[in-house]
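ESCALATION

Customer reports they have been waiting on this structure for their group meeting. Please prioritize. Original submission:
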Amino acid sequence: MLKFRYLFNNPDLAHMLVKNWEYDEDSEELFQYFRISANAIYPMKIYGNICYLRFSPVSEKSEENLLAELAFIEYLRNQRYPAMEAIKSISGDQLVRKETDWGEYYACVFKQVEGKQISQTDFNDEIMIAYGIALGELHSLSKKYQNPSVKRWSHNDVFDWIEKTLTGLGSDQKPIRELTLLRSEFDQLTINQENYGLIHFDFEPDNVFYDETSQRCSVIDFDDAMYHWYVMDIVKALDAINDEMGTEDCSLQEEVFLDGYRSVHN
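Update from on-call: job pushed to the front of the queue and completed.
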């Protein structure tokens, strides 16, 4: 989540950043459909195709993590996995670092994927199978993703960041003790190539799109990807299915999702 001072609509900033891409200038009217959470997202068009400008302050993001995200997406696409496509800027870079009137920002542009957000569907068996398959295929490809030139952070890196943040806040020792306990518990878990790798970490129905024509899912928003246990992606997806459906019993949808996952990954 961005700091409060960045959580406001700034179309002038979006206009300044999007100029780094060859975009359709008459599509700036789409800026009104912006969204701001961990990043600012502004829709626009490039050669008539809907795309999304994503940006955030340099102080809020790690350049290494952003480059690692883009490298993983490119790897997935080269393996014919339907991940979102990053569009190169005029300078030929997927990630732009730009000094603006509002400070220094990182910016990327992604092309809109095919299909409909699973969160906007009826969660039928066909969709749930495809949803599970998409996660299973992602984990299978992650296992083969060896020695990338830039690496995303891991669960241990997140622990380090939490400790640094808590220490900087000068908070009491209770949160630090809790963090130490969590580290100890996590350190007892087995890590090997079969159960641990680069996961999406936000594989929820609003980040996965189902295309009826291809009967496949496309995946967006790898911003939270990290090295973690594969089961974390599974648990978060199951929790999200339950939350999105809002019914007392989602066990059938959850089991069909798991059937899809198991069909391509242990």
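Sent to customer with the following note: The chain has a mean pLDDT of 94.
Escalation resolved.
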